[in-house]
Design brief:
Blueprint (H helix, E strand, L loop, with lengths): L22 H8 L5 H4 L46 H5 L11 H21 L18 H15 L1 H17 L6 H20 L6 H24 L1 H27 L13 H7 L8 H24 L35 H4 L1
Helix pairs in contact: 4-9, 5-7, 5-8, 6-7, 6-8, 8-9, 9-11
Family: Belongs to the alternative oxidase family.
Enzyme class: oxidoreductase
Subcellular location: Mitochondrion inner membrane
């Protein structure tokens, strides 16, 4: 039996001699994230190497295998994802909520700084209008996956931190939270499902894992302290952050539809995505997957802008309440009545 197990990293001893002359290229691959200045000078890619990974297809480990218990077949999710129609997902558009006060400016400025750092880390360059086709702004499947994995590993933090702090506040004050906790934790769960889905397409290497660990550690503690000071600014910050996520996925969809990502033209979405989003037959490609993820990000954009508009201490969560007049327009869990810049307080309370 081969001593190299399914979960072990590739060792130098296991690499065929024909690859030894590519030691520099191999060293870059072992980092898990190709830096842009090296990626542009090395074009060789072994046929069996996965994107943003040094692990071969047949040796990639299973991130979420079935439970190792003979009487258990699978673990059901506590949250059922709402069903999106193709028409609803295609109606999602890029939008921006204008700043109205100093708190909004703080949130937007922080997002811009974070966006710059993330672009630098993932090799992404957002083109200005009219320069979308310049070579320096072009993205490959590999770079998109690098960005998606890094983005989603951070995006699951705010909902968990907000839900945790509101949970502790409810215990401490011995009062109800009026439905905020559930929505925030569900948002964190949804972002984690995005990450698990993209991990089915590419396994990050050592350097990517270190980057995620460092970024998550800094971001978690920073967001934790910020939420203690001003939950309103934090929700506005997440709303602006999700605006950027919608831009990112919209550009990826456009690249795919314009033939710039040929490896994804007919590639099927992972089974975990098909089950989670209940993707219908004939709509299970990577392009369809990106539409579903973008719709989720657009919903998070609406939810956090709406929560930021409310009184953080006394207002109920409008996404978990029952209204006296159900015929009046109000927020819901789906995207049927998606409001890109959020619902104002007088519309929902």
């Amino acid at each position: 039996m081969n001593s190299l197990t399914a979960t072990a990293p590739i060792r130098v001893a296991s690499v065929p001699k024909s690859y030894l002359h590519l030691s520099v290229r191999g060293a870059v691959a072992m980092t898990g994230l190709r830096t842009p200045w090296l990626a542009s000078t090395h074009h060789y890619k072994p046929a069996n190497t996965r994107l943003i990974s040094s692990t071969r297809q047949r040796e990639i480990k299973e991130f979420f295998p079935p439970p190792p218990h003979e009487h258990i077949r699978e673990v059901e999710s506590a949250w059922t994802h709402p069903v999106y129609t193709e028409e609803q997902m295609r109606q999602v558009t890029i939008a921006h909520r204008e700043t109205k006060n100093w708190a909004d400016w703080v949130a937007l400025g922080t997002v811009r700084v974070l966006r710059w750092a993330m672009d630098l880390a993932t090799g992404y360059r957002h083109p200005p209008p009219g320069k979308e086709n310049e070579a320096k702004f072009q993205m490959t499947e590999q770079r998109w996956l690098t960005r998606f994995v890094f983005l989603e590993s951070i995006a699951g933090v705010p909902g968990m931190v907000g839900g945790m702090l509101r949970h502790l506040r409810s215990l401490r004050r011995m009062k109800r939270d009026n439905g905020w906790i559930e929505t925030l934790l569900e948002e964190a769960f949804n972002e984690r499902m995005h990450l698990l889905t993209f991990l089915k397409l590419a396994e990050p290497g050592f350097f990517m894992r270190v980057m995620v660990l460092g970024a998550q550690g800094v971001f978690f503690n920073g967001f934790f302290l910020s939420y203690l000071i001003s939950p309103r600014i934090c929700h506005r910050f997440v709303g602006y952050l999700e605006e950027e996520a919608v831009i990112t996925y919209t550009r990826a969809i456009n690249d795919l539809e314009n033939g710039k990502l040929p490896d994804w033209n007919n590639k099927q979405a992972p089974e975990i995505a098909i089950q989670y989003w209940k993707m219908p037959e004939g709509q299970r490609t990577i392009k369809d997957l990106l539409y579903y993820v973008r719709a989720d990000e657009a919903k998070h954009r609406e939810v956090n802008h709406t929560l930021s508009n409310l009184n953080q201490k006394i207002d109920p969560n409008p996404y978990t309440v029952k209204y006296k007049d159900p015929t009046k327009a109000h927020p819901g869990k789906g995207i049927e009545k998606l409001k890109a810049t959020g619902w104002e307080r007088d519309e929902v309370v």
